[in-house]
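Q: Hi! First time doing this. I have a protein sequence and I read that you can turn it into a structure. Is that right? Here it is:
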Amino acid sequence: MSTESPAIHIANARKAYGATVALDDVSVSIRPGTVHALLGENGAGKSTIVKVLSGLVSPDKGTIEIFGKPVHLTSPREAHRLGIQTAFQEMTLVRNLTVLDNMLIPEAPVGPTGMMSRSKARQSVGAHFHDLGIGTVHLDEEVGDLDLAVRQKIEIARAVYRKPRILILDEPTSALSGPDVDWLGNVIRALKRQGTTVVFISHRLREVRDFCDELTILRGGKNVASGNVADYEDADVV
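A: Yes, that's right. Below is the predicted 3D structure, encoded as structure tokens:
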């Protein structure tokens, strides 16, 4: 049995918003280098776990360990420092900025003077888009002029560009279909080969089976099942 520490270990977490209990003594453990699905109906607690791991909210109780080290994720900046990046379903792109400018938020390549090197940034982002297979996206276009699927792909590309140790994909295929879903599958498989841990939130069981190694099912803010994807029939999950 492996003694390697989990990439993510949440223990006995509770989070309430007034009378609504979003997380009710929930524990989740995710192995490093795996693609782990987080499943559950609306209100099950998935979005709250995403926000906790992204540093947007803090649990009222419970502990979090990242690669075996206790952490306090008090802000997105702290999550980024620990190598956690999130591509959100409710996209965080700024519509009236260009694709390039959005890719550089909040950090950009700098030159010897400490100022942003725009030419270096353009070259770096262009190469990244090419590697991801979205090199046809024009860096000078305003994000608000692009269709929803392209914006979702840019949201994902930006999270990957920051070279995360842990990547959280929050309903990433909600705006994608057909070839775009295949594109995402290729991105996820490439990240897994590099050793990145991926947390995949979805309602689509076919994608879970195609992309994921393990799963956790939440209901009413509790972990009601965890294990290998192959060990669960669709009817069991439902």
